[in-house]
Amino acid sequence: MNIDKLNDSQRKAVEYKGKHLLVLAGAGTGKTHTIISRAAYLIANGVDGNRIQILSFTRKSASEIVERVNSMFRDSKDAKQLNGSTFHAWCMNIIKTNPRVFKVSDYSVIDRDDQLSIFKLICGRNSKIIEETRLTAATLLDTYSFARNTRKNVSDTVRLKFLNNSSDENANKEIERIKPYLVSVFTNYEAKKRERKYLDYDDILDVVSAGLKNNKEARNYITSQYDHILVDEMQDTNPLQWELLSSFQENCCLFCVGDDAQSIYAFRGADFSNVHKFGERVLDSETFRLEDNYRSTQEILDLSNWLLKQSPLNYNKQLRATRGTGEMPVIMNFENEWREAEWVSCDILENYTKDGLGYEDHLVLVRSAFAGRAVEHFFLEKKIPYRVFGGVGLMASAHIRDVASALRIVANIFDEIAWMRYLTLWSKIGDQTASKLINELLDLSNIDDCIELLKTKDLKNPDLIKTLSAIKYFNNNPSEAIRVALSVMENQLSYIYKENWSQKRKPDFEILIKLAAKHSSINEFITEYVLDPQLNESYLKNDEIKEKVTISTVHSAKGLESKICYVINVSVGAFPSKRSMDEGGDAVEEERRVLYVALTRAKDELYVTRIIDTIQDYDLSVTNLQKQRKELSDIDSNEIHVSTNIAEYIPITYFLNELPGELVINQISDRTKNALSSKIYTGAVIAENEFGIDLS
DNA sequence: TTGCGATCCATTTTT
DNA sequence: TGGATCGCAA
Q1: What is the tens place of the pLDDT at every residue in A20-56?
Q2: Which residues 284-343 on A are within 7 A of strand C at the CB atom?
Q3: Which pLDDT does position A273 carry in this prediction?
Q4: How far is the CA of A451 from the C1' of C1 (A)?
Q5: Which residue is closest to C2 in terms of CA–C1' distance?
């Protein structure tokens, strides 16, 4: 193995001989390289590949790590056995391989959409209370999941999420008021899950974690199957994941890599005290730091460092560029998102034709998946090839879920959500009819009985039954099952999606069929795609065309890097978002880290674009302060979330306020100048005597 | 009860 | 922009 490419601190970590290690690695300091080298080092020193488990946040990064380790050992079988997966996929695997410990191996995994359907069903019955508390099913679901991931009880969760963590009398009263409702919804939800044999994402971790914690024998048996657990993106782990990991402390060496400044998943319970408290919580552990940045030029890091330094939190981070200096980061100002997107696409095209850069050297980062649409529009128009990371994946699209629902029924006939979706898909069957049918169906014990029952009903469309019985024969060949289901359902689907069935939707199934071919049972395939709806499509499309610009949400961009990077819509009200300002300090700080992650993706050139309302906003220092005062008074007048600790954070209403001019080049085009100045009429005013009825 | 059309609505981030 | 929800006709 070649570890010459490691610097001293990296090498120290890679060759660590003690038990547990935390590596605090700033952006671009070779975090992934270190974890890959660690795995390779262990294997080269005789550790069995299958006794090493790499855990990461997305499957994309997990499989990339495994691949790169493999490529270092062309002919070693040890490396081939290396395990790499997400926490969820790993736990699912533990559940499946130890059915006698966990007793849930025949359950169906449900994703957020399915959870939401159940919550809606439960809330539907007492929607009046929803009006009083203004809690939607989606909010309730998020609250539930947050509580489970953070291991908090309902009261504390409500206090934290809705009451700014205040414990005064008003807050306590409010908790007393809404808690019974939450408790009843959550109880219903958990009962429903048990009844229908569902596991949601949180269950997967919880079941394993609780099993290991409470059953010493099982813990010993399972944890002794591994020698080393390598955790990537440690700052994104939540208390539940920590609980799970801590069960492995005794028998395994933990090697955790993370960066607190890149923690951007607090909204789903990530807690960077998993990083901060590592030393005190884990006996027999050490902490190393990596601070040399290999990715970016110093100018890009100066801007990133500056951003972090404005925070009231002390990240104690100052990245140093080993590459030296380069181009200054540029701030581009535009009058609206279309001009902004147009400029990005023109700039990329120019680089491509003039400077000989490839499309793949460009990365466009957006705050929300939604925000990329203007850019996509111009890419299509200018025929710039691109791929999108983040947001709603293929697997979440309606037509795929339709066909998947048929497969899910055959895999688990108690899957009420799947029945509901599948039955109502057909004409003349709505919620009412479907509910009645489902009531009867759920009493049956196998798919054949279900089909028989459906045959006795006077259903308008025989394809409904045909599809199910066709799939049944391909239980062990998911790919064929999809093909056959599609052919029977196509009439109905093309009717439902008449506008874009054959051009847009139908081709998606080719991908699905290809994906399914890797699996040997329907159930296995379903579980797989529920656990990872994103990656699969991306790696299939990946090798189709390498020459592509990447559009990504910042959250999906961890680990990505690019020569040229556009961070778009870094505007007032977007960074931080209004929403996070309402929520308070922690949310605002998380937004800051989101921007930090975005800025540190750039290797050579960084363009921060933003939309401004008036020509004055173009100025970096002065007018934004005025703007900030205005925002501040707006917040005060809303006064929904008045609390003491929010006050000290309020002055941070726009991250680029008071950005020192020497850190960036601030640019505006004449076109934008004109567009903005024409917004405000500064000419002569019509006098009163110039209009009115002619009295003569 | 279903299905269509119109209107309104809001719009983070993801395993 | 399109997604979800509401109201009305068949």
Answers
A1: 999 999 888 988 899 999 999 999 998 888 999 999 9
A2: none
A3: 86
A4: 42
A5: A370
Cα A137 versus chain centre, distance: 20
Cis-peptide, bond into residue A576, ω within 30° of zero: yes
Q: How far is the CA of A547 from the C1' of C9 (A)?
A: 53
CA A208 from centroid of its chain's CA atoms: 23
Percent of chain A with pLDDT over 90: 27
Q: What is the DSSP track for A393-410?
A: -GGGSHHHHHHHHHHHHH
pLDDT at residue A319 greater than cutoff 90: no
Token output for A367: 């705050």
The first and second tokens of residue A414, run together, are: 């108690």
A355 pLDDT band, cuts 50/70/90, is confident
Tokens 């929520």 sit on residue:
A583
Name the residue type at position A148: R
| Nucleotides on chain C within 7 angstroms of protein Cβ | 1, 5
The reply to whether A115 has its C-beta less than 7 Å from any atom of strand B is no
A366-395 residues near strand C (Cβ < 7 Å)? 373
| A420-423 CB contacts, 8 Å cutoff, 24+ apart | A420/A117, A423/A464
Cα gap A397→A504, rounded to integer Å: 12
Q: Kindly write down the DSSP assignment for every residue of A112-157, as one continuous string.
A: HHHHHHHHHHHHHHTHHHHHHHT--HHHHHHHHHHHHHHT--HHHH
Pairing assessment for the beta strands A386-389 and A549-553 based on DSSP bridges: parallel
Question: From the alpha carbon of A149, which nucleotide's C1' atom is closest?
Answer: B15
Residue A111: phi and psi, rounded to 5, are -100, -175
Residue A540 burial (C-beta neighbours within 10 Å; 0-12, 13-18, 19+): middle
pLDDT tens digit string along A271-312? 888 888 898 999 899 999 998 999 999 999 999 988 888 877
Strand C lies under 7 A from the Cβ of residue A504: no
DSSP E strands: which ranges in A505-578? 549-553, 562-567
- Residue A345, C-beta contacts closer than 8 angstroms, at least 6 positions apart: A375, A378, A379, A381, A382, A384
- pTM (two decimals): 0.84
Residue (of A57, A51, A50) closest to A85 by Cα position = A57
Q: How far is Cα A454 from Cα A38, in angstroms, rounded to an integer?
A: 57
pLDDT on residue A267? 84
Distance CA A272, CA A1 (A): 33
> Strand B closer than 7 Å to the CB of A439?
no
CA–CA separation, A81 and A50 (whole Å): 5
Among the listed ranges A95-109, A110-124, A197-211, which one has the minimum average pLDDT value? A110-124
Shortest CA to C1' contact from A113: nucleotide: B14
What pLDDT, in 10s, does the model give residues A190-240?
A: 998 998 889 999 999 999 999 999 999 999 999 999 999 999 999 999 999
> What per-residue string of b and e applies to A478-500 under the rule 16 or more CB within 10 Å gives b?
bbbbbbbbbebbbebbeebbeee
Helix axes A447-456, A463-472, angle to 10 degrees: 160
CA A242 distance to own-chain centroid? 19
Quickly give A362 CA vs B13 C1' distance in Å.
22
- Do A470 and A489 meet the contact criterion of CB atoms below 8 Å apart? no
Residue A193 contacts residue A416 (beta carbons within 8 Å): no
Task: Provide the CA A455 to C1' C10 distance, Å, integer.
Answer: 27
Q: Which nucleotides of B are covered by protein (CB under 7 A)?
A: 1-3, 11-15
Query: Nearest to residue A567, comparing CAs of A534, A516, A608?
Result: A608
pLDDT at A406 over 70: yes
Given a cut of 50, whether residue A484 has pLDDT beyond it is yes
